[in-house]
Amino acid sequence: MTEQAGLPDLHFVLVHGACHGAWCWFKIRSLMETSGYKVTCLDLKSAGIDQSNPNTILTFDEYNAPLTHFLSNLPDNEKVILVGHSAGGLSLTDAIHRFAKKIRVAIYVAANMLRHGFSTDQDIKDGEPDVSEYGEVADLEYGMGLDQPPTSIIIKEEFQKRLLYQLSPKEVNFQSTRTRPSITYAVNFDSTFFLAFLSNPAPLIDGFVGLGQDTALASMLLRPGPVRAFKGARFEGGKDADSVPRIYIKTLHDQMLKPMKQEQMIKRWQPCQVLVLDSDHSPFFSTPRLLFDLISKGAAASF
C-alpha cells in the first residue's frame, strides 16, 4: 500500500514534452518513490538518452513507439496513471485511443489535449504554441532539404528560461541535509554524473536542498524535437477512449502554452476535473511539490 491511506499500489507513467526527456521528471519521480509509488519515466524516440536522430523521426507513431511498446507489454490486469507534460499530452491521447482498458486516469500538465490530435485548423490554433511576440525563438533543422518543411526544432538557449522556466529557482545552493548545513558543495556536471543522474536521480534530491539552476541542467540536456512527427499527430477515435477519466492541470503563468489556449482545449474536450497551478510551463522544476500534490489528488479522485 502507498502512503495515501486506502489507495492500492499505484503505478505512474510520466511522459515528457518536446525536446525534453525522462530526466525532466527527476524531482517528481523522487517525491513519488518516497511516497511508495511505482514510477516509470520514458524517453520517447530521439529524446533523453535515446540516440535516434530527430530528423529521421517523421511520424508520430514512430516517435511515440516507446510508450506504445510499454503499454502493449503491460499485463491486461494492470492499469497505470499516465501523466503527460506539454507535447506529452499528444502521447497520452494516442494511448487513450489505443489502450483505454490499461489506463486508470490520464493527467495532462500544461499539455496538448486534443481529442483527434492536429486534425483541424481549430486544433492547430488551440494546440500549437504562439510565441511570435518574442521573434525567432527556435532553431530549425531541414533534414529532408531546404525545400521541405523542417524536421526538428529546439528553443534557442537565450529564450528557454523566458518561455519554459521563468519561475524556476535562480540560485545554486547545494547544501547537504545529511551533514553540516553550512557546507556548500560544488558538483561537477560531467558525463559520469549525468549517466548516474539519469539512471537514479533520487540520491541527488535526497542529499541536497535548495536545488537551483534547473535551467542550466535543462540547457545541457534539451535535444531537438521531431517537429514533423508532432505536426502529423492525428488520432482515430478508439471505441473506449471516452471511458478513460482525464484531468487537466492548468499553469497560470505559462508563456509557452498560454492559459487561454489551455482553456480552449479544456472547453472543446472537457475533462472530468480541472486543477490549477500557480506556475510557469514547467512546474516539475518551479513547483514540484505542488505539482506532486495535484497529481496525487487527481489519482485519488480516479477511485
Give your account of this protein's structure:
The protein has helices at 26-34, 60-63, 65-72, 88-99, 121-127, 157-164, 191-199, 202-207, 214-221, 227-231, 259-268, 283-286, 288-301; strands at 11-15, 38-42, 80-85, 103-109, 138-141, 152-155, 175-176, 208-209, 246-251, 273-277. The protein is α/β, with parallel strands linked by helices. The chain has a single domain, classed as Alpha/Beta hydrolase fold, catalytic domain (Rossmann fold, 3-Layer(aba) Sandwich). The strands form three sheets. It has a six-stranded parallel sheet, with helices on both faces. Helix 5 crosses helix 11.
CATH topology: Rossmann fold
Distance between the termini: 15 Å
CA-based shape: globular
What is the typical, i.e. mean, pLDDT? 87
- The helix-strand sequence is EHEHHEHEHEEHEHHEHHEHEHH
Helix percentage: 25-40%
Count up the domains.
1
Coarse structural class:
alpha/beta
What's the tally of helices?
A: 13
| Strand element count | 10
CA-atom Rg in angstroms = 19 Å
Oligomer: single chain
How are the strands ordered across the major sheet?
Answer: 2-1-3-4-9-10
**Full CATH superfamily name:** Alpha/Beta hydrolase fold, catalytic domain
**Runs with pLDDT <50, length 5+?**
172-194, 202-212
- Name given to the CATH architecture: 3-Layer(aba) Sandwich
Protein name: AB hydrolase-1 domain-containing protein
Domain AB hydrolase-1: 12-293
InterPro entries: AB_hydrolase_1 (IPR000073), AB_hydrolase_fold (IPR029058), MES/HNL (IPR045889)
Keywords: Hydrolase
